[in-house]
Amino acid sequence: MAVLPIYTDGSPVLRKKALPVKQLTDDVIQLIMDMFETMRKASGIGLAANQVGVLQRVISIDVSEIEGLENIKPFALINPEVIDKKDSWTIEEGCLSVPDVRDEVERAKTIKVRFKDTGFHDREIEAGDLLARVMLHEIDHLNGILFIDYLTPEKRKMHAELLQKIHRGEIEVNYPVVTAADIPL
Ligand code: NI
After folding, report:
1. In whole angstroms, how large is the CA radius of gyration of the chain?
2. How far is the CA of 82 from the centre of ligand 1 (A)?
3. What is the pLDDT of residues 92-141, one digit of tens each?
4. How far, in Å, from the CA of 154 to the mean position of ligand 1?
5. Which domain holds residue 135?
6. Would strands 103-116 and 122-128 be described as parallel, antiparallel, or unpaired?
7. Contact status, residue 185 vs residue 167, Cβ threshold 8 Å
8. Is residue 181 part of a domain?
9. Which of the residues are catalytic?
């Protein structure tokens, strides 16, 4: 397993739509294992393949460190699709690709998601609260959407300086990153 560098805001790969996984190859399994390793290293609770520069519809989730969610073992979702949404709530979010920026986002409170598991079997999961939120955040990544996209222009302005720093690659985090400044034009 390998810790992969995480692409940060300003990197084009974060704005692209990831493609469905057609079959479970060794490469996909390797990707999933590396994503778990990367997520652990970065102390993240969720990661999407776009964030490690791979445009495949794969997300990994590990909420087992969160109080009350210890029983949910880390798991990966291949080709996840939200098939139902109910109610909404607003809490603060962050993202490993947008370090140090945190702000409130409104999302559905309860969702139903269809996906393939790591055995490539069709599965459905109903999730609420934080688990639902992580899934929605990660599925957004697969569609090229970041949580900061939901902020009002005023709130974005509040974060503008920090976002510019991220774009310039002036980031201090304890995990490897690829910033927009690292990418040749
Ligand atoms: Ni994120």
Report:
1. 16
2. 17
3. 999 999 999 999 999 999 999 999 999 999 999 999 999 999 999 999 99
4. 21
5. 6-173
6. antiparallel
7. no
8. no
9. 138
